[in-house]
């Protein structure tokens, strides 16, 4: 491939890394064109799934700060660049891989952070948005003002907030009640409601 053409490909991959909410690296060896087309369509509007050259992708990844993806760029590689919520796409990839075991998830990037294959799978197992929002609303004692910002937040972010609230709740339940007059033990007055308020504010 001429140097100018290689540079154009690197620029294109770099732009996709920067503009996508997630990028999932896969090995597609043995899959048919029809199967790959099916996977591409399942990812949602605006997303893409394309075979890439490992050497050029490594250079693009380095340019955007994802040099730790290099070990994953071996063998036949295709990348799903995701537009929209990465959880929805992760579920689509997981479901496709279950029906087509030849697809192997290697890892990728989610919301600017590199992840391994296990984290992609974990993302696919996140509960539906409606369930997570219901949990958050309960933790915030039905305060819709605090919850309002979460309805537009990415599902992966909502999942992290729900997990944080659950940890706070378990921590509060596991600690002994402070004795009367024990100022040190009573100093921590943070409630799940307060944690939720901070979490909602972070989505603005």
Reading the helices and strands in chain order gives HEHEHEHEEHHHHHH
Low-confidence spans: pLDDT under 50, at least 5 residues?
A: 176-204
As a percent range, the share of helical residues equals 40-55%
The proportion of strand residues reads 5-15%
Question: How large, in whole angstroms, is the Cα Rg?
Answer: 21 Å
Cα shape? globular
Largest sheet: 5 strands, antiparallel
Number of helices: 10
Distance between the termini: 45 Å
Identify the strand order in the major beta sheet.
2-3-1-4-5
Structural class: alpha+beta
How many DSSP E strands? 5
The overall pLDDT average reads 77
Can you offer a commentary on this structure?
The protein contains ten helices and five strands, in the order αβαβαβαββαααααα. The chain is α+β, with helices and mostly antiparallel strands. It has a five-stranded antiparallel beta sheet with strand order 2-3-1-4-5. Helix 1 crosses helix 3.
């Amino acid at each position: 491939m001429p140097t100018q053409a290689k540079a154009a490909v690197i620029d294109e991959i770099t732009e996709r890394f920067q503009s996508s909410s997630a990028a999932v690296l896969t090995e597609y060896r043995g899959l048919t064109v029809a199967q790959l087309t099916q996977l591409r369509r399942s990812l949602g509007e605006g997303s893409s799934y394309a075979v890439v050259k490992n050497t050029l992708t490594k250079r693009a990844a380095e340019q955007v700060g994802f040099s730790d993806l290099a070990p994953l760029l071996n063998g036949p590689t295709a990348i799903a660049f995701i537009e929209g919520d990465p959880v929805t796409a992760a579920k689509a990839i997981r479901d496709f891989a279950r029906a087509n075991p030849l697809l192997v998830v290697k890892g990728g990037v989610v919301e600017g952070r590199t992840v391994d294959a296990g984290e992609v799978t974990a993302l696919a197992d996140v509960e539906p948005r409606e369930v997570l929002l219901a949990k958050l609303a309960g933790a915030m004692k039905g305060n819709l003002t605090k919850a309002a910002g979460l309805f537009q937040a990415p599902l992966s972010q909502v999942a992290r907030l729900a997990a944080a609230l659950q940890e706070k709740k378990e921590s509060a339940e596991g600690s002994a009640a402070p004795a009367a007059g024990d100022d040190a033990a009573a100093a921590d007055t943070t409630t799940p409601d307060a944690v939720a308020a901070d979490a909602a504010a972070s989505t603005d």
